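Final report, closing paragraph on structural work. Over the funding period we assembled a curated collection of sequence-structure pairs, and we close with a single example.
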Amino acid sequence: MGKLSLAAKITHVPSMFLSEMPGPNHGCREQAIDGLKEIGRRCDALGVDTIVVLDTHWLVNTAYHVNARERYKGVYTSNEFPHFIQNLEYDYSGAPELGDEIAKLVSADGIRMMSHHVDTLELEYGTLVPMRYINADGRFRVLSIAAWCPWHEMDESFRIGQAVRKVIEASNQNVALLASGSLSHRIHDNNNAPAGIHTISDEFYKQVDLRVLDLWREGRNEEFVKMLPLYSKLCHGEGFMHDTAMLFGALGGGQYSGSAEILTDYFTSSGTGQVNAVFPLVA
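Its predicted structure, as stored:
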């Protein structure tokens, strides 16, 4: 039988690349990078062999989609931030059977979901950036699920999370589930962006984000699940926070009783709110 061994909400800010480079921003995202590397170490300790990423940088306008390629290999430059992410080489094994089974179970529940084995369907940077630090040597298989879902129902994403966990537990794989996306996500206006690389676009967003982290730490998950649909809209949640809905669906929704462990303290980046948080798996 398979097992879900680790669940987390993670950052994928491209400024982690700037943090690696000489210059005025060198080291600025060291804590975020360290948090992702710690998740990789925990995956090793837990015997994880597969990482499922709920990617808020994969935009889909109809249906839900899974990138279920046998292997992902290429060189990536971001079309959104080409001045941040250039010529990123990657090579990961996929988990096509797991992807197919997820799409099959979700479809049986009446939700349109498709699993794709298309060599030209590339990974997005919501998957590639965290894998750079969690899975640098490609030791974990990777499966990417689209989570930038502007025309989808939040309730369906909760149900997809439930299905993901059922499929994982019925498989022969040991899995980490990562919701890859920010908290608030109102990026700075164009001319304010260079000076605002380390700030939030509005104090309101920061204060709501911090309240959410308090709820997570205190295990007040029923309250969070109730507020998530409006939170995702008022605070411009990345991908409308369908990654987070899927994650909490896998955890048990409002009935989840775990208290989050904050691996990387809340930080602001280019107008957005970011965190690395691990959610313990509870019975």
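The first helix runs from residue 15 to 20. Strands lie at 3-10, 50-59, 64-67, 71-76, 88-93, 113-116, 141-148, 174-180, 261-269, 272-279. We thank the funder for supporting this effort.
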